[in-house]
Design brief:
Length: 225
């Protein structure tokens, strides 16, 4: 049986914040001036890339990598809270007869990605973004760049390079229980301080019952019978 919970009614009811962030990045990058002409763009690593074929290079891939989750605070205090470190990988493959120009293009590609993402307030704002369900993240905690060179073409003389950019995004989640019975009634009874039998017998005690209805202000009711 499913655990009952109240979601937002949006995409984050069924998809993780990592998925939302990755797709938001891909949507922002894929249609920019630098990458709009790339013939192949993906968010899935399942299919191979044909480096010798004319239809898949230049290539852009944006992927979710190995996500790490650690306790946010003491793991045994309160509800479960997690600190997420989400690596987003960028795979860029290009080829050019001139290897020096190709190296310059690769550096330009990664610098372009960082400028497009880090300067976009609709993406980086800590309070309000235009990502689904106003998804936010705290920051980028680390990154790295790697390259792999090779050759392609009929004569195996066309330089081809793959650049891998990895950026690690950080956000937090909390997981609160939702299966609680509703608080419907509270009974309050006064009591004279103990140790004064005469005072207790002479003091009128008050008993008030508060009943709570959904979306209403608590109203004193007559005492319980």
């Amino acid at each position: 049986m499913d655990v009952k919970w109240t979601g937002t009614g949006g995409v984050t009811d069924t998809q993780s914040y990592s998925w939302v962030i990755m797709n938001a990045i891909f949507d922002r990058i894929a249609q920019t001036s630098f990458f709009s002409s790339f013939v192949c763009k993906r968010i899935n690593r399942a299919l191979p890339i044909e480096s010798g074929g004319p239809v898949q290079i230049p290539f852009l891939g944006v992927y979710l990598l190995e996500e790490n989750m650690a306790p946010d605070g003491d793991p045994n205090a309160g509800d479960i809270r997690l600190d997420h470190a989400v690596p987003i990988g960028f795979q860029i493959i290009m080829k050019n007869n001139n290897s020096d120009i190709l190296l310059q293009m690769m550096d330009q590609a990664t610098w372009f990605i960082m400028n497009q993402l880090f300067r976009d307030n609709t993406f980086t704002n800590r309070c309000v973004t235009n990502m689904p369900d106003n998804t936010t993240f705290e920051g980028v905690i680390r990154g790295r760049v790697r390259e792999r060179w090779g050759v392609t073409g009929a004569t195996q003389e066309m330089p081809v390079v793959e650049r891998l950019l990895e950026l690690v995004f950080r956000f937090r989640t909390s997981w609160c229980p939702t299966e609680f019975p509703d608080l419907e009634r509270i009974t309050v009874t006064t009591a004279f301080p103990p140790g004064d039998a005469q005072g207790q017998s002479e003091t009128h005690q008050v008993k008030v019952v508060y009943e709570f209805a959904p979306d209403s202000v608590p109203t004193p009711l007559p005492p319980d019978p």
